[in-house]
Amino acid sequence: MSQSSGQFVFGEPQNARNKRSRARLRTVAELYPEVIDPALDDDNEPSCSAIESLERQEPFVNSVLAQHALTLLARLFRYGQIPCHGGFVDVANSRCVPLPVDPLLWRRVRKRGEAKPEKKVAHHKGT
After folding, report:
1. What's the N-to-C CA distance of the chain in angstroms?
2. Under the phi-then-psi rule, with left for phi > 0, alpha for psi from -120 to 50, and beta for the rest, what region is 80?
3. What is the mean pLDDT of residues 10-30?
4. For 37-64, b where at least 16 C-beta lie within 10 A, e where not — what string?
5. pLDDT tens digits along 34-56
6. 121, 36 in Cβ contact below 8 A?
7. DSSP 120
8. Range list of β-strands (E), the chain
9. Please, what's the largest Cα pairwise distance for the chain?
10. CA 58 centroid distance within chain
């Protein structure tokens, strides 16, 4: 991830009441399961501190993400619906790509994650 970019996703965790709802906003873990996969962590260190975060990331990236998220939340409260439930923001290039509310896209993303073959470990026999 670039030092000048980030993402935000609104989602509703699945439970017994909304399990079959097509309108339920998928969580980031459902759309991108790799974000919660501990095997993909670069190290076993805990999340970085606020100071480390400020050193690694360009200024105001988090505030820009928060403003986008708050604007989307305000639209949801005002109009009762939203066309997207997140976005990918690149502050350096002044770009925001929305994450649309799209059950077909969600299904494709989920299938993409399911279709990934497991990594096979090659065993080498010593001579």
Report:
1. 42
2. left
3. 86
4. eeeeeeeeeeeeeeeeeeeebeeebeeb
5. 888 888 766 655 556 667 766 77
6. no
7. P
8. 5-9, 84-90, 95-100
9. 71
10. 19
- Exposed, middle or buried: residue 76 (CB in 10 Å: 0-12, 13-18, 19+)? middle
Q: What does residue 69 show for φ and ψ, rounded to 5 degrees?
A: -65, -45
Q: What is the pLDDT of residue 70?
A: 96
Residue 35 tokens read as: 């974000």
Distance CA 10, CA 33 (A): 15
CA distance 122 to 93: 42
Token pair 């639209």 is found at 75
Coil/strand/helix, residue 59: coil
Backbone angles phi, psi at 65, to 5 degrees: -60, -45
Gap between the Cα atoms of 8 and 27, Å rounded: 10
Q: Where are the domains of the chain?
A: 5-115
